[in-house]
Specification:
The chain is mainly alpha-helical. α2 crosses α3 and α5 crosses α8.
């Protein structure tokens, strides 16, 4: 309630130095929505959580599966790497909710164990199924790993096509008057 009632300038001032200011704005807007629609209580429902500003399928899935043990997939870079290798998925990584990675992860979640499974799958990717030097001999699912069987661990997951860099030129104007620097804050 305190965050929801705070002026946006104060929220941004407290966020100062952390970068990604859109996250502070989203957090502020979400706090206001939680107060307005949910009586100040964080929602437990996946769709209500997804309706919060800046919350996508990954974050909503993480909250509902880890906090509430709901059978929701969580697909991050580590999970994509594990699934790419486990199933020898030959397509570029895709975090879209309808992608093969989300479908496979959803199908793997054991009933009643979403919390543990999702965290374990992310840890497997973070600690064992590493991007550059995977530790295949230590992997608990190596006997099921199609990439290992096909000797393709090093080539999966496939690299995403990189978009061309866009050159951005920015300008800042400051007026100095009577020893003071005058700046104008950019509008929302």
């Amino acid at each position: 309630a305190k965050l929801a009632a705070a002026p946006s300038s104060r929220v941004l001032k407290h966020w100062q130095g952390l970068g990604y200011y859109s996250r502070a704005r989203n957090l502020h807007a979400s706090a206001q929505l939680i107060v307005e629609r949910h009586g100040g209580e964080f929602p437990r429902d996946y769709d209500a959580i997804r309706a919060l500003k800046g919350v996508g399928p990954y974050t909503a899935g993480a909250i509902t599966s880890i906090a509430y043990n709901e059978e929701r997939p969580i697909v991050d870079g580590n999970v994509i790497r594990v699934l790419s290798r486990l199933y020898a998925i030959d397509t570029a990584p895709d975090r879209d909710e309808g992608s093969i990675f989300w479908e496979r992860q959803r199908a793997l979640i054991p009933h009643g164990k979403a919390r543990l499974f999702n965290q374990a799958l992310m840890e497997l990717g973070a600690l064992v199924c590493l991007p550059k030097a995977p530790r295949c001999p230590e992997c608990p699912v190596r006997k099921h790993c199609q990439a290992l069987k096909q000797d393709r661990v090093g080539e999966l997951p496939r690299a995403r096509e990189r978009k061309a860099n866009i050159r951005v030129t920015a300008a800042c104007v400051a007026w100095i008057k009577d020893g003071r620097v005058l700046l104008r804050q950019r509008p929302e």
